[in-house]
Amino acid sequence: MAIDIQKIRSDFPILHSEVNGHPLTYLDNAATTQKPQSVIEAITQYYTTYNSNIHRAAHHLSSLATEAHESGRRTVQRYINAEHEHEIIFTRGTTESINLVAFAFGEAFVNPGDEVIVTQMDHHSNFVPWQMMCERRQAHFRVIPFDENGELQLEVYENLLSEKTRIVAFNHVSNSLGTVNPAKKMIDMAHKVGAAVLVDAAQSVQHIAHDVRALDADFYAFSGHKMYGPTGIGVLYGKERWLDAMPPYQSGGEMIDLVTAEKTTYNKLPFKFEAGTPNIVGPIGLAAAIDYLNTLSFEDIQAHEDQLLAYGRERLLEIEGLRIYGNAKEQSSILAFNIEGIHHYDLGTLLDTQGVAVRTGHHCTQPIMAALGIDGTVRASLALYNSMQDIDALVTAIRKALKMLGR
After folding, report:
1. pLDDT at residue 57 greater than cutoff 90
2. What is the three-class DSSP state of 108?
3. Closest to 278 measured CA to CA, from 235, 238, 233, 240
4. 348 vs 283: CA distance, rounded Å
5. 327 and 208, same structural domain?
6. Are residues 23 and 168 in the same domain?
7. Looking at 239, 259, 293, which one is the last position of a domain?
């Protein structure tokens, strides 16, 4: 059943605003999504009716806050189909989730001469932490290249895998090319040589169906703000056996069991990895966002966004001199392009004057840009509340910008 786009758009207050005297056309969803009224209300309710610190206090407000916070953990568990509630670790976002694994997994399992594999299309937050870990642990850093269509070269990946491979990390969907990587196949290939796998799901968990047990992912990381929830909250899923064997990433309150002058012992999962006062309202807002998504089916969301993506490619390619980057067989939500002779930043600025919000630059994927021989792109990224009219507004604004530039 097709989604009711007008009903959905009515749920997001900011979509009815104006920018520079024009109705807002918001196409920067890969950077952050807008929030439905239900998420805004859940956050407001916490701060106005039961704001309190959690877990240790004996008073009523703390009990309410603790239950709401931990209920959010259970909501995430169900959403990604994790086996255990305590396999859900709350972080500040995908970046911190990956850094946590790169540090703690590296400390526990990576030794000099071991190997770590990432891809050429990974976001810097799933590239640099592994480089740093390899430098720290004297391990070898390996990179899977992509081909002219923006698809990973799996034959190279297969040759890189060996008994020395300790962990493979890759994104499920590229934030710069929109490529949907064959996550299940890549995980199975890694497991055959005994390697663990981290999936960066920041650009996939809100767009395509997800199930960490069906994927058999060892780690799975994503951010709340890219899936209609608040900023400052992220999730790291990890299989219990890995999380139990890894040392804490940060120390302080909550992550301890017993502290003495002689030795400190650590709390049980998930709290071993959640030092200090957390972003209490974050999981509450994230749970509200998941509840909102659960009112729809992912089959309908994906069908709607795939239709938008196809329409967007068709309309953009009508513009003379425009090149779209990323032509993989399976794609999701990303339209990245340049126009011959026009700098991406200049075009993005002129689109903004017409109320069209896109992102320009290298999108924290400089290895991709180096492979393509460019320094950046204009990126229009889609969400469930976008419409054909948004695509039309983008194309109209581009044509007007070109006229302003004398084209």
Report:
1. no
2. helix
3. 233
4. 33
5. no
6. no
7. 293
The Cα 69–Cα 272 span in angstroms is: 16
Shared domain check, 315 and 288? no
Q: What's the predicted TM-score (pTM) here?
A: 0.97
Single out the residue of 141, 134, 170 nearest to residue 153, CA to CA: 170
Among the listed residues 340, 325, 339, the one whose alpha carbon sits nearest the alpha carbon of residue 397: 339
Same domain, 96 and 156: yes
**CA 332, 204, 70: angle at the middle one, nearest 5?**
155
CATH code at 132? 3.40.640.10
- In the residue annotation, 134 being an active-site residue is answered as no
Which tens digit of pLDDT belongs to each residue from 302-320?
999 999 999 999 999 999 9
**Residue 190 CB burial class (10 angstroms; 0-12, 13-18, ≥19):** buried
- Whole-number Å distance between alpha carbons of 133 and 112: 11
Residue 229 domain boundaries: 40-293
Number of structural domains found in the chain: 2
CATH number at 383 reads 3.90.1150.10
**3-state per-residue secondary structure call for 210-225:** CCHHHHCCCEEEEECH
Model confidence pLDDT, tens digit, residues 132-176? 999 999 999 999 999 999 999 999 999 999 999 999 999 999 999
Kindly report, residue by residue over 172-196, the tens digit of the pLDDT.
999 999 999 999 999 999 999 999 9
Return the amino acid letter for 71: S
Catalytic residue among 3, 5, 128, 364: 364
Transcribe 129-197 into DSSP letters. Answer: HHHHHHHHHTPEEEEE-B-TTS-B-HHHHHHH--TTEEEEEEESB-TTT-BB--HHHHHHHHHHTT-EE
Report d(CA 109, CA 376) in Å as an integer. Answer: 36
Where does a domain end: 293, 309, 338?
Answer: 293
Q: How far apart are CA 125 and CA 390, in angstroms?
A: 30
